[in-house]
């Protein structure tokens, strides 16, 4: 059964931190007048282990979308306590059978810069049918923007949508085409991490004991904290895309050295969820939810792939406020692992 194969692929992608972080991203497929979409807060990685997809009345959804109503509440076709993905409208407006929305590290390294669209065009040209949508709040606003983008150029049969400061949507009518498209984009947008960056790290003595915290054992994290330019990015441009803000807040918890970190630890009694300590490491709270660990690693992985000659474009204060005060995101955070 093709749907079983798609669930297996969703689980595979969901286990790849370069594409999906925690409960981020979502997937869907269409069966007649039913849209099967991931439930909010559920993990794609669990697609084969539990029922993470909900059946939605696609005919009802489409009828409202075609009259310009993108604020419609999706009708779930079974009794459940779960809610459909915040991005359900996004999946409904894409005409193809299979739709996959991810937050790929390789793509985000372009999408958080002002030159992102032009650089993607240089890489891809017309090898695939793609379009680029400026940042919109996830949900109805984004769904509407995607709908307009693909209907303004119907002759192109858009199958790839790049979302500024957010991620990527890919679609296809056959599963093997979707898989091939995802692999193609990953390859074409790939940027290697320089050997100099990975090797340029000093070894510092662990001067203090931060009870309840441990250093993240990750080579990318170590490269990040020992690179002055990447640390500067975290200071200035912490809020780069929605999930990062939702799970880690609007400002970085960053210290210049171990001594400053220790002073904060003694004064406040804790370091919050994490602490980035320059030229030392990334301290994370013991038993920190995997969602937040994944988001930290994602941010670091994006930063070490950024072309530093480009101009970084973070989310605005208004964008951040919309995300942090949104009940739908609060719900998603509350049920995520």
TrEMBL record:
InterPro entries given in the database record: Aldolase_II/adducin_N, Aldolase_II/adducin_N_sf
Pfam families per record: Aldolase_II
SMART domains: Aldolase_II
Ranges where the Class II aldolase/adducin N-terminal domain occurs: 7-193
SUPFAM superfamilies: AraD/HMP-PK domain-like
Highest taxon of the lineage: Bacteria
Protein name, per record: Aldolase
Organism: Terasakiella brassicae
Lineage of source species: Bacteria, Pseudomonadati, Pseudomonadota, Alphaproteobacteria, Rhodospirillales
